[in-house]
Design brief:
The strands form 2 sheets. Strands 1-2-3-4-5-6-7-8 form an 8-stranded parallel barrel, surrounded by 8 helices. The chain is an alpha/beta fold and 393 residues long. The protein is 44% helix and 13% strand. Strand 6, helix 7 and strand 7 form a beta-alpha-beta unit. Helix 3 packs parallel to helix 5. The longest helix is centred in the middle third of the chain and has 20 residues.
């Protein structure tokens, strides 16, 4: 259901250089999560053979694929490195055909047929045909390429939104149409052995819709969606593994172990010289941190009221902070958790002191600061009494 391309698409991103140790950590992490398939490199990459061997050694349950251009020589190079599974990129927009390849539609179909014939001759076990720039291509030609690929032995056709322009409604329409066209061709006997050809999806995130598009594709008949850790990839990247895996698990569509994801995301961020924002889905450190009074009250009553899934599902933990946005009930509850029970008449002064100090510090208070505030404000009242000396660490 998910194909991870961190080690292909991700490594193509600007300024990203992963060591073999990084790659091994990523492969082990993907296996721990339960991702079934990954692209581990491309034909022409000097260490493709090493990557395929590494994947077989450290993640034997992971189906490792090599990406190739739509050229027979690329398939021969991949096969020589030990690839038994390949993903072939095929531009389908007229702009790419004319300005990148310098060929017309009939010539592309001939090249695709020759490339797939080479795959059969090499005994390659699984071939995906990735239809590049599909969001700017003629829909009828996209369908024609998919049916042509199926008729010449492709096992999967992949809808690739190379520049991230698709919307979920468009994705739903295209995937359903593609599924119907492939099924009709299968039943009509034009595909070898009348077997079912699966549909994959590869969405870029230039307009921020990659994960939504990937989930929509899977909901509308696609069998597989491409992802990468943190969405790492060209420009704004692609659909994010951590987001799509969590969405599928929460919706009951898949069974992945999400707990390794924050650590895996942190490792990739460090290796790629990125920082994970504190509010980043699944991997952000503050996604289960609550300060505002309404949310804090609801979470204390029943965490599911304000959480889509429990923190331990993704290896996280819940934090309830007090600060400028906290009310009396939240402050009293936080103090009670610290075994401090101020008399009711003292609580308003403590709440005021908490809010003022939090505003000065521009963050929620630490437990030590809350204890200090409660002691001083409860005894003397004014916040000014807190400020001459340093606060406890």
């Amino acid at each position: 259901m998910l194909l991870d391309t961190t080690l292909r698409e991700g490594e193509q991103s600007f300024g990203t250089y992963l060591s073999m140790a990084d790659r091994e950590r990523i492969l082990r992490g993907l296996a721990a999560v339960g991702v079934p398939e990954a692209e581990v490199g491309w034909a022409g990459r000097e260490d493709l053979g090493d990557m395929l061997a590494l994947a077989a050694r450290v993640a034997p349950g992971l189906a490792a694929a090599a990406w190739c251009r739509c050229r027979p020589e690329d398939l021969r190079a991949a096969a020589a490195c030990g690839a038994r599974r390949v993903c072939v990129g095929v531009p389908v927009s007229d702009a790419h055909l004319a300005r990148r390849l310098g060929v017309g539609r009939p010539a592309l179909l001939d090249l695709l047929a020759a490339t797939l014939a080479e795959a059969r001759a090499l005994g390659i076990d699984h071939v995906t045909v990735g239809m590049e720039d599909a969001s700017r291509a003629d829909r009828d030609f996209v369908s024609a390429v998919a049916r042509h690929a199926a008729a010449h032995g492709a096992h999967r056709v992949r809808l690739s939104d190379t520049v991230g322009l698709f919307t979920p409604l468009e994705v739903a329409e295209v995937v359903r149409g593609l599924r119907a066209a492939l099924d009709a061709a299968c039943h009509g006997g034009t595909a070898p052995r009348a077997r079912r050809v699966s549909i994959g999806a590869h969405f870029h995130n230039d307009c921020g819709m990659a994960t939504a598009n990937a989930l929509t594709a899977l909901e509308c008949g696609a069998d597989c969606a491409d992802v990468s850790i943190l969405g790492l990839g060209e420009r704004a990247g692609v659909a994010r593994l951590e987001e799509l895996a969590a969405a599928l698990v929460v919706r009951g569509r898949a069974r992945f172990d999400l707990s390794p994801l924050p650590g895996l995301c942190g490792h990739v961020a460090q290796a790629a010289s990125l920082s994970v924002p504190r509010h980043w889905p699944v991997a952000g450190r503050d996604i289960f941190a609550v300060e505002s009074g309404l949310h804090a009250h609801g979470v204390r009553r029943d965490p599911s009221l304000f959480e889509p899934f429990p923190p331990d599902l993704v290896g996280g933990s819940r934090r309830l902070g007090v600060g400028r946005k906290s009310g009396a009930a939240a402050v009293a509850a936080a103090l009670a958790e610290l075994s401090i029970l101020p008399p009711p008449p003292a609580l308003p002064a403590i709440v005021e002191a908490v809010r003022e100090l939090s505003a000065t510090l521009r963050r929620p208070l630490t437990p030590a600061e809350l204890v200090h505030v409660a002691g001083v404000a409860g005894a003397a009242g004014p916040l000014a009494a807190l400020l001459p000396g340093p606060l406890p660490a």
